[in-house]
Structure formats: C-alpha cells, structure tokens
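R.M. (postdoc): so does anyone remember the format we settled on? I'll just put the structure tokens first.
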C-alpha cells in the first residue's frame, strides 16, 4: 500500500470517527434550538445573544466558530480526527494579523501537539492562527425545560486584533456555512434533529426541523400558519468550488416593475451564472454585507432598467428625478413617491430576481428590503462592487424574510418580505 493511499485511508477513518463521536447515541431527536439575534446599529451586523455569553457575529459563509480565549483555554490534540477536519477549513488568501504565530509562546494543554485553525474576519478579510478548543455557548430550546441550555462547541481561538470592524461587544464569529465545524452542523451532529436551520433577520435563527408560526391580522392568535411549509417558495442551492460553504442561488435575470412599467436589465449572456470550474460569478447570500452588491457590469444594466421603470411608471402629473447620490449609494431619487400602508413604506419599484430551473417562484425585493432614506431622498440599497460574485444579496435584502436552509434537500426556502403578509419576524412562535 502506497504512502498516499495510507494517508487517504487515515483521513477517511478520522472523519468517520469524528462523525460517530459527534452523533447522538439515541435515535430520538432532541428539541430544536433557537438563538435570538440582535442587529448592531453601528456596523449593521447581526450577533447571537445568550444568558451570560458574549455575542458572536453571524456569518452565513463562515466555516468555523471562533472567539477570543483565556490564556488557560483547553486544546485539542493535533493528531485527532477533529483536528483533521479543522485543517480542511483554512481560508484562502487572507492577511494574517499576527504573521500566523500569535499562539507560538503559549503553554496550555499539550504544548507540542496542539491543533490549530485559521479564524477569518469576514468584514476585513483578515485571519489568524489559533488553537482549536471547546467553546461554551448558551442557546434556547423550543419545547423543553430549562429553556436555556449550555453547549460545548468546537471552535478556534483568535487574538483581539482580529475583532477589528466587528460590533463593540462581539468576541468572535459564528459560522453558518455548509461544513462540519459550522454552528448549524455541530448542533445537528450533537442533537440529531435534522440538517435544517432558519434565519429571520434581525430577530432569530432556529436549528432543527421546527415549524415557525407567524400570526397574520386580523387574527391575533399565534400559531396560525407554519411559514416553513406554507409560507415559503423554494430554490435550489448551488455550490461554488471557490467558496464551498457559501449559499448560492440560480439567478438568471433581473427586472424592475412599477405601476405596469416593466424593464429588464440588459445583461451580457451568462452574466449572473456561477462558473462551476473557477467559482467566479453567481449570486450568493451574505449576512456580513450590509447592502446588496453587484459587479459593475451587472449594476450598470440594473441601473438603466431601474431608471427606465422610474421614468415610465411614475404617477401622472408628478415628478420623480434622480439626484446626486450620498455615498456609499449610487442611485438616489426625489419626488412623487406616495406612501403605502401595506407595508407602511414608500411606493417604489419592485426588483425581481428571476430564478432558474427548480425554483417555485422568483425572488422579489420590495420597498423595505432596499430603500434607504438619506437627506430627504430615497436611495437604492444596492452598490456596485468589483469582486468574484456577480451579486451578493446582503443583510438589507434578507431582513424580515424567513429563510429556511434545508441542507438535506440542498434547497432554500424564502418567504419574501413578511411585511407584505402583515406579519414580521417579531411575531414568530415555535
């Protein structure tokens, strides 16, 4: 047997050992879990909350859970199965804030064979080298007592310098990506409650196969409709070779509609496609990008379509004009935008992301999911940014939109703006 074959065999065996050690011994599925979230007004990032545990930033594309640690933290042996998995999570192309040697002189646990990982700051793109350890978390369950549970999660330590640009009280990041050491994957492995989680920004996330009930006026009683089954459309989830943990969706086109005036963005052929060989292009979801971004060529076509819909769809005898934008925004308007009651907001164009095969309906970006009021003008919360994805759907677009990530079926459920159904994330019961 060759050396390379033995190495592959050991990796496979180690992965199986890790899986078996994390899997719940009983076949009974435990109660799903719920984590309350808070939006930080200074950074527009979302953090977890717990009884006495510092908050962690929610990163949909993050492969690890990481935090600052005490100098006496525990470590995990470098020859363990858990370490073999952690070594696969190294972030590509990042600038190390410590030259990769932050923990070189520490002496906790086993000083000669302590496993290390590479925590990544998703805002700055900086990373570090830190010990793999056990992190304590507090999280609520949906049906059992006591309501707050303490759990141990495999995570990485990081220096305080890696917290730059994160919320003031945050001590790290909770990764929600597809991968064995993300928070949803570890919770599922420990509790065996189904490989599914939901996000309803900026209020909560759920883990496990749990219904989410949203009451709809005029009926004030909770628990009338399970929105995870009756209130969401579905689209397949795609995988990028350059970002295997990211959640991509198949968007084929973009159009804008207002008062019967429809305008289609004249995009180059395949402009939004995900290149399955290089990982370039595609449309990905992000909780650490405050506003949607588009590659410049995509944004230019979108801006022309938006201007066209504004011009042709405005109410007769009113004036709507484009005004100088306030940074970081590029598209700002002032004029005849009437107020609407459902939801209470401005009557502005709808932006439609036209989804590809397998989707049950298109993704509509409504008023409250993109309009930003700045100095008396209405600005479009979508920005031109050069980068690998063709489009990033950011936090503004995801807020008050129930998202159900079904990793067993590799599909995403999305409700659209809940304001349109006269409900919200704040009205949820479980």
């Amino acid at each position: 047997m060759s050396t390379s074959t033995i190495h592959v065999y050991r990796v496979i065996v180690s992965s199986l050992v890790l899986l078996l050690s994390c899997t719940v011994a009983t076949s009974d599925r435990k109660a799903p879990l719920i984590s309350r979230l808070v939006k930080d007004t200074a950074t527009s990032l979302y953090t977890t909350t717990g009884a006495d545990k510092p908050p962690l930033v929610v990163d949909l594309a993050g492969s690890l859970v990481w935090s600052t640690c005490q100098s006496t933290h525990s470590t995990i042996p470098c020859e363990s199965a858990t370490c073999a998995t952690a070594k696969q999570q190294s972030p590509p192309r990042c600038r190390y804030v410590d030259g990769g040697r932050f923990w070189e002189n520490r002496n906790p646990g086993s000083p000669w064979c302590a496993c290390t990982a590479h925590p990544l700051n998703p805002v700055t793109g900086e990373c570090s080298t830190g010990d793999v350890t056990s992190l304590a978390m507090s999280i609520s369950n949906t049906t059992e007592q006591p309501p707050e549970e303490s759990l141990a999660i495999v995570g990485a330590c990081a220096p305080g310098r890696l917290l730059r640009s994160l919320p003031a009280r945050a001590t790290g990041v909770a990764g929600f990506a597809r991968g064995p050491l993300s928070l949803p994957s570890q919770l599922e492995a420990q509790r065996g409650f189904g490989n599914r989680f939901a996000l309803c920004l900026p209020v909560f996330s759920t883990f496990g196969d749990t219904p989410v009930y949203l009451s709809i006026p005029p009926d004030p009683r909770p628990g009338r409709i399970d929105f995870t089954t009756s209130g969401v459309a579905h689209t397949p989830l795609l995988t990028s070779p350059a970002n295997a943990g990211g959640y991509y969706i198949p968007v084929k086109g973009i159009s804008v509609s207002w008062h019967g005036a429809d305008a289609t963005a004249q995009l180059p052929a395949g402009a939004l496609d995900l290149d399955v060989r290089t990982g370039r292009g595609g449309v990905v979801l992000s909780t650490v990008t405050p506003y949607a971004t588009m590659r410049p060529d995509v944004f230019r076509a979108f801006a022309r379509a938006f201007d066209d819909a504004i011009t042709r769809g405005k109410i007769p005898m009113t004036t709507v004009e484009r005004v100088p934008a306030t940074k970081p925004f590029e598209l700002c308007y002032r004029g005849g935008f009437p107020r609407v009651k459902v939801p209470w907001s401005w009557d502005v164009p709808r932006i439609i992301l036209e989804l590809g095969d397998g989707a049950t309906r298109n993704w509509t970006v409504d008023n409250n999911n993109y309009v930003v009021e700045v100095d008396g003008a209405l600005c479009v919360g979508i920005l031109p940014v050069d980068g690998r994805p063709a489009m990033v759907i950011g936090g503004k677009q995801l807020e008050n939109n129930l998202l159900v990530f079904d990793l067993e079926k590799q599909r995403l459920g999305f409700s659209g703006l809940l304001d349109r159904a006269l409900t919200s994330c704040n009205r949820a019961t479980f």
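R.M.: ...and that's the designed sequence above, right after the tokens. Also worth knowing: The chain is about 15% helix and 30% strand. The helical segments are 3-22, 81-86, 183-191, 296-313, 395-398.
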